[in-house]
Amino acid sequence: MSKENLRFNSKAIHGGQEPDKAYGAVMPPIYQTSTYAQSSPGAHKGFEYSRSANPTRTALENSLASIENGKYGLAFASGLAAIDAVMKLLQPGDEVISTNDLYGGSYRLFSKIFEGFGIKFHFVNMENPAVIENYINTNTRLIWVETPTNPMMNIIDIAQVANIAKKHKVLLGVDNTFATPYLQLPLDLGADLVMHSATKYMGGHSDVVMGALVVKDKDLADKLYFIQNASGAVAGPMDCFLVLRGIKTLHVRMQRHCENGAAIAKFLADHPKIEKVYWPGFKSHPNHEIAKKQMKGFGGMISFVTKGNNYQEAIKIVENLKVFTLAESLGGVESLAGHPASMTHASIPKEEREKTGVVDALIRLSVGIEDVEDLIDDLRRAIG
Ligand SMILES: *Cc1c(COP(=O)(O)O)cnc(C)c1O
């Protein structure tokens, strides 16, 4: 029986994995080596130098390909290094259409690095995918989608964007960091390329920084592999081991993230001091129907705004939390809280960020997998 026909939970554990060839180790060893002995020049066992390939990284890359329903996985030193590799597929004069409510680091990479190399970016609200066609011209090479978006939790219809991309022969890349393949499979919905900050849910334990790409097409995989090796921002073997270990519990973690997220979203929505809760599981969420269609659950990422939109009050709430840790990042087993206006989005001018909904009192939660009653008690006490 091919392991690729297994269901998701089984693939998270077995997909693309074989016992190690040397001694049958069930977990791939951490091959902490830069180079490999050759018996004669060019005669080796498939590995020559660890920038080009390393057995621990290969084991992780096969697992990534399997769980995203792709064929080829590539692991990078960070999520941004993975996006950087995608952008190196392009040439000066090429154009990219990207979601507007974008991870700040991706926005910085696009606008501060690749714009300077002559690539043009259009940042577009894709909640109605038809508007994308207004920005397509003969120079358009790539559509870049993040869904759910950060921190506003907008949902973009991947299948509809994929139809537009196919019609115009443009590549579609999806940043699947927030949803993970447990909740959403962009390649099955027609995307050409999936990207992850494996730092977040894939690793899942806030102990590693890593990025990943997964594709189906051999040609595209070859080009990306060439860039990975030529530019060299590869993931190290220890980190690959940690993320592989994380992936083996992705499904159980995500199930609990979703359950705890739902309970907390409802608690916040019912709280008299809360003005608005952004979570795609609510029927009132403007993109709820798309979320239901393309996602298996609604995840553990929630943003909310207190009544009166008071900056100081929001700061006080995040300072008073005890079980939630005030920190950047997301997707770990522990619950985190962030204040986008003063943290992740502080570099964006107030008027700019408020246009996308990042107001002074917005608080973002990455709901972990602790006892949800403890999380709710913590929020109740901090909100007061
Ligand atoms: C964190 C993050 C990134 C960047 O990944 P790093 O691993 O921090 O480089 C990209 N996209 C999203 C949605 C993220 O949350």
TrEMBL record:
Keyword Coiled coil: no
GO function term, MF aspect, one: cystathionine gamma-synthase activity
Family: Belongs to the trans-sulfuration enzymes family.
Organism: Galbibacter pacificus
Keywords: Pyridoxal phosphate, Transferase
Class of enzymatic activity (EC top level): transferase
Protein's UniProt name: Cystathionine gamma-synthase
Keyword Plastid in record: no
NCBIfam families referenced in this protein's UniProt entry, alphabetically: PRK07811.1
Documented EC number(s): 2.5.1.48
